[in-house]
Amino acid sequence: MKNIFAKNSSGFSLVELLVVIAITFIMTGVLFANDNKKKATADVESVARQIATQIRAVQNDALTGKRIGDEYAKTYTFSSYVTGYSTSYLNSGGADIGGGLAIDLSKKRVAITANNFSFISPFAYTSLGTITITSSLDGAVKMCVDVTTKGDVTERKC
Q: Residue 5 pLDDT more than 70?
């Protein structure tokens, strides 16, 4: 006759299972922490490239004398603010002649320093300045977009 209460030694004990589960949770936490750092870096780099590209586009418009409707713009402006940026085109009297855009970057989880660059047609010279993009996820992740008085636009880690 078989004893139904005999101890069966095959399988895992509760302690062994708890140790495996704890190790799994620790490894998952480390993986997610690294993933957030990668997301923060990717967001900041993406926004820095986007801003530098838009500054170059506004500068190119000033060099080529972009026409808005039936009027040529004299001043081409790029403005950054905490959650995005905008462009505008001004005639020789300083009035906005339309054709600009406003971009909201709040979904990118970044903060942007406020700055203003105006390119005067036809030479597209501007003021010296830097725009700093900082991650909202990790404040240590930053990139800068530098603009020189001759209009050179560069991206760098800062």
A: no
**114 phi-psi bin (left φ>0, alpha ψ -120 to 50, beta other):** beta
User: Does residue 76 contact residue 118 with C-beta atoms inside 8 Å?
Assistant: yes
Residue 82 sits at φ, ψ, to 5 deg, of: -55, -40
Domains of the chain: 14-157 (3.55.40.10)
Contact (CB, 8 A) for 105 and 133: no
- Judge if the upstream peptide bond of residue 122 is cis by omega within 30 degrees of 0: yes
How far is Cα 101 from Cα 53, in angstroms, rounded to an integer? 14
pLDDT at 2: 61
User: CB count, 10 Å around CB of 81?
Assistant: 15
